[in-house]
Amino acid sequence: MTDRYASFVQTGAGRALVKRLGLPDPPRLRRHTPGDPLVPGPVLLGSSTGGRLAEPAGKILATAGVELSDPATTTADSRFAALVYDASGITDSAELRQLYDFFHPRARSVLPSGRVVVLGTPPSECASPREATAQRALEGLTRSIGKEFGRGVTAQLVYVTRDGDAGTAVSLESTLRFLLSGRSAYVSGQVVRVGAGTAVAPADWDRPLDGQVVLVTGAARGIGAALAKVLARDGAQVVALDIPAAGDELAAVANGIGGSAVQLDLTAADAPARLAEHLASRHGRVDVVVHNAGITRDKTLGRMDADRWDSVIDVNLSSQERINDVLLERDLIPAGGRIVSVSSIAGIAGNRGQTNYATSKAGVIGLVDSLSPVLRERGISLNAVAPGFIETRLTARIPLMLREAGRRMNSLAQGGLPVDVAETIGWLSWPASGAVSGNVVRVCGQSLLGA
After folding, report:
1. Over 70: is that where the pLDDT of 252 sits?
2. Which of 32, 86, 140, 251 has the fewest CB atoms in 10 Å of its CB?
């Protein structure tokens, strides 16, 4: 679906009109193309007094071929593809002034579609209430920067555990590589937590899923089809699953990426067992499970019949639980495995006419919260993504004015693309991201809904 307004504002007449009337100004976003450098320019790396993360972050960026700049040698004319700041040394609210001193003179120095990443310590791990208070304050900083800097610039906060291990270092690298690259074009204002866990760096960061068997449900169209393509591009052997009625579209997706297709109704009583038997006989395991299958059956709660309620809960939430139970019980997801579920900002903010859908998607977040600590003990990570307004056939059916509101009510003033969700799920699926678990990452351009 084409966003004609976004295309128009890129023209001379469009830019003049936007400036004169103060209309939304959707920037052209930098998205990932294989072979691209991690960032299209130098990165300025700064640190608070006593910060513990600047050194490992600097080594990661240098290894990735990034040109690093020193705050002491930059000038007012310097321009940067990204600002990375280690705030882990801030232990008191008075020390938050260091953030102002670093970002204030450089607020206009970030290139279009640039990145801002702040590194901190999880408040729950801080040594004192004052330190925890100061570290929690970082969320307000990064979310505000995401709304202020404009021109496609995104801002994120990464909390990195104090009790790190080798997996922590690897997952910090995977997270920085994702957040600084074009893969994260439609992700902004997010908080990512990197803990300890099983994580393995790839031999080639351009193919971070080499050798991995990945199951994608709901793969026949939309976000699911984009997922299959991105994961295959990154080296995965993709098992694409959808209902029999979507068989032709599913086969086209699977054939296009050299994957395999499975036609299965996930609501059938024997579906989890049949899926487990297929994966066991064909592959012996499944390294990554992506629960993408979902439906909508919209009505206000007072007008909704029971079938609409039951079908949405069953497909969007209960089927995920049943599949997880069987695959885990049969040890088909090995240590180092990944489970990624698709939630929605509707599960965070609610949505009129979608009580069933919002309930199911909030349940997905509950699944991540409750099950991720259990799976961590088995070396398996569990995360969710929560898409906002994504340009698909479903959103194309929304009435014009509501569709335009959905597109513009975020910091990037545009809808996202299915590939934006796919890239985020790809990052969470990487073997290198094993210490990233229990997160719900919104892919919504920093939507005002639920903010």
Report:
1. yes
2. 140
Pair (153, 270) in one structural domain:
no
Please count the helices (runs of H) and the strands (runs of E) in the chain.
Answer: 17, 13
In a domain, 63, yes or no: yes
Q: Are residues 56 and 152 in the same domain?
A: yes
Length of the chain: 451
The single-letter code of the amino acid at 74 is T
Q: Which residue has the tokens 């073997």?
A: 431
Which contacts qualify for 101-109: CB closer than 8 Å, 24 or more apart?
Answer: 102/46, 102/71, 103/141, 103/145, 105/76, 106/44, 106/74, 106/80, 107/148, 107/149, 109/44, 109/78, 109/79, 109/80, 109/83
Tens digit of pLDDT for each residue in 332-350?
Answer: 999 999 999 999 999 999 9
Instruction: Judge whether 97 lies within some domain.
Output: yes
In this prediction the pTM is: 0.96
Find all residues with CB under 8 Å of 282, minimum gap 6, and list them: 239, 260
> 163 and 56 in one domain?
yes
Q: How many domains does the chain have?
A: 2
- 197-225 mean pLDDT: 97
Burial category of 307 from C-beta neighbours within 10 Å (exposed 0-12, middle 13-18, buried 19 and up): exposed
Task: Note whether 51 and 106 are same-domain residues.
Answer: yes
CA 449 to chain centre: 17
Which stretches within 22-90 are classed as H helix? 54-63
Please give the structure tokens belonging to residue 433: 């991201």
What's the rounded Cα separation, in Å, for the pair 58 and 64?
10
Tokens matching residue 145: 């920067």
For residue 146, give the CATH number of its domain. 3.40.50.720
C-alpha 416/C-alpha 428 separation (Å) is 18
What's the alpha-carbon Rg for the chain, to the nearest Å?
Answer: 22
Q: Is 357 one of the catalytic residues? A: yes
Our CA angle for 84, 89, 91, nearest 5°, is: 130
- 173 neighbors 432 (Cβ within 8 angstroms): yes
Could you list the residue range(s) of the whole structural domain that residue 165 is in?
A: 22-194
Rounded to an integer, the average pLDDT of 250-263 is 98
Question: Does 240 share its domain with 165?
Answer: no
Residues 18-40 have pLDDT tens digits of: 777 777 888 999 999 999 999 99
- Please tell me whether residue 442 adopts helix, strand or coil conformation: strand
**Are both 138 and 234 inside the same structural domain?**
no
Q: How far is CA 129 from CA 48, 124, 136, 158, in A?
A: 19, 9, 10, 20
How far is Cα 381 from Cα 267, in angstroms, rounded to an integer? 25
* Residue among 85, 159, 186, 357 flagged as catalytic: 357
